[in-house]
Amino acid sequence: MTVNLIGLDQEALRGFCAGLGEKPYRARQLLRWIHHAGVDDFSAMTDMSRVLRERLAQSASIGAPRVLHDTTAADGTRKWLLDVGTGNAIETVFIPETNRGTLCISSQAGCALECSFCSTGKQGFNRNLTVEEIIGQLWLANRSLGRGVTEERPISNVVMMGMGEPLANFENVVAAMRLMLDDSAYGLSRRRVTLSTAGLVPGIDRLGDACPVALAVSLHAPNDALRDELVPINRKYPIRELLAACLRYLSKAPRDFVTFEYVMLEGVNDSADQARELAALVREVPCKINLIPFNPFPGVGYRRSGPEAIARFRDVLMQAGLVATVRKTRGDDIAAACGQLAGRVQDRTRRTRSPQQEPSR
Ligand code: SF4
Questions:
Q1: Topology of domain 3-61, CATH
Q2: Which terminus of the chain is less hemmed in, N or C, by CB atoms within 10 Å?
Q3: At what angle do helices 170-181 and 201-210 cross, to 10 degrees?
Q4: Model confidence over 50-88: pLDDT tens digits?
Q5: 112 lines ligand 1 (CB under 6 A)
Q6: How far is the CA of 113 from the centre of ligand 1 (A)?
Q7: pTM for this structure?
Q8: Rounded to a whole number, what is the distance in angstroms from the first to the last CA of the chain?
């Protein structure tokens, strides 16, 4: 059986090379070929001897998940539907903007946390993605976008914000993020890699020690009673504990603020009073608040807040001295907007499935 090298970091590749009787510097060469150059064919690795290339071809492979669909929206947002086996699929979305390109990556097939407004939550949990499947999304997107990361980089930012709760797949997500940060692989700055969590408090603390990157937290409610309903993990890790974890994290983080995500649900969490309650709640945590217009999907009992309600909510936060932005809705025509990723995915975790399944925060 061959080893898939796409998910191995520099140290693991050194071990693999040692097994072949090769010098440690080969690991760096392999990383550069695989992740900088996006190569999946050992014969293209021209700074290695023909004999070594043949040995690599016999003992190893370089492979990412298979692309089922590749769609580009009118606004340039691009979405890949990827096969991760046994009838499951995940999605990766690229969002081009004037001065940056952001790739939204999935960490699990499905999600166990059952946030009430999230189509992934409705789908249930299938399994954690492997390191190969997580980093493979970045590798594939870089190749598909047509330029290596050493040239003008189409992907300047990565957000772990697709399908799944990344801190519930801690080891694999951290291993993949280390490859994103490695100069011999993607060389992304810690400030440009963001992990978004629904609030797994022990995971936030572990992340601060293992691999501090920018942190986003799905808050969505200004008090525990409402958050218990919207984000049920709140019953285990209530808001006060979550905010305390954010403060601890900030002492180790590459950015000096946490981003709080807040999905705008009409008549549920979007009143001016709730905006004031939210402002009071987060006042001790250096933060930015990202208001996300909800993307409805079939069978969900929520509606998107109107533009006036969203603007009023933002204004109350700003008058309280907070930085608040409204997320621009992208990729609507290919169902790539937040909360409506994925389409015709075969899912075996539930007997019924909606035509639109996915995430997220
Ligand atoms: S919002 Fe995120 S954590 Fe919650 S169910 Fe959806 S994918 Fe899971």
A1: DNA polymerase; domain 1 (1.10.150)
A2: N
A3: 30
A4: 999 999 999 999 999 999 999 999 999 999 999 999 889
A5: no
A6: 6
A7: 0.92
A8: 38
